[in-house]
């Protein structure tokens, strides 16, 4: 049987092996007893100099937590600008992977989930696109202000 198209647990930092020992205690401490987890990851078009595996968990309300886990992807890009010969050369490129994990102790991620006109996937991806900026903006502003001194 082919693995093509099948989910690979090892693609995520939060997986069957790491969840019980590394992540569940954090959620339990926040009194969140996970019933549902939604995971997604994106390769950012840049590198954040942070150790692979670094994670941040924010408790958003009584039954909802958001865990962001960072990883690295090292590849090469072909570079052709300014070359004399017609042979491009490769440059090593490092990018950051951001893994988004939304964890809830509720049966639903949103109160309108299940209603005909509610698009859960759009809600979750909008959430992932907007929630991290709420944390990163104050951190980057604080860092910028501390550098000015």
Could you explain the architecture of this structure?
This protein is α+β, with helices and mostly antiparallel strands. It has 2 helices and 4 strands; from the N terminus they run αββββα. Strands 1-4-3-2 form a 4-stranded antiparallel sheet, covered by helices on one side. Strand 2 and strand 3 form a beta hairpin. It is elongated, with a radius of gyration of 19 Å.
Outline of this structure?
The chain has 149 residues and is of the alpha+beta class. It has one domain (9-148). Helices cover 27% and strands 32% of the residues.
Task: Please give the domain count.
Answer: 1
Task: Write down how many β-strands occur, each being a DSSP E stretch of 2 or more residues.
Answer: 4
Supply the number of helical segments.
2
Radius of gyration: 19 Å
Low-confidence stretches: 143-149
Characteristics:
149 residues
SSE map:
Elements: H1 19-29, E1 36-43, E2 55-61, E3 64-79, E4 89-104, H2 120-148
Antiparallel strand pairs: 1-4, 2-3, 3-4
């Amino acid at each position: 049987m082919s693995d093509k198209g099948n989910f690979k647990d090892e693609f995520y930092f939060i997986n069957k092996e790491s969840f019980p020992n590394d992540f569940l205690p954090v959620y339990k401490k926040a009194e969140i007893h996970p019933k549902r987890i939604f995971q997604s990851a994106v390769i950012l078009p840049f590198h954040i100099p942070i150790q692979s595996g670094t994670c941040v968990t924010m408790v958003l309300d009584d039954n909802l937590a958001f865990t962001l886990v960072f990883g690295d992807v090292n590849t090469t890009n072909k570079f052709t600008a300014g070359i004399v010969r017609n042979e491009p050369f490769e440059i090593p490129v490092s990018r950051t992977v951001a893994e988004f994990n939304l964890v809830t102790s509720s049966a639903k991620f949103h109160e309108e989930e299940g209603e005909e006109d509610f698009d859960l996937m759009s809600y979750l991806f909008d959430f992932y696109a907007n929630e991290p900026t709420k944390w990163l903006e104050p951190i980057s502003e604080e860092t910028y202000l501390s550098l000015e001194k």
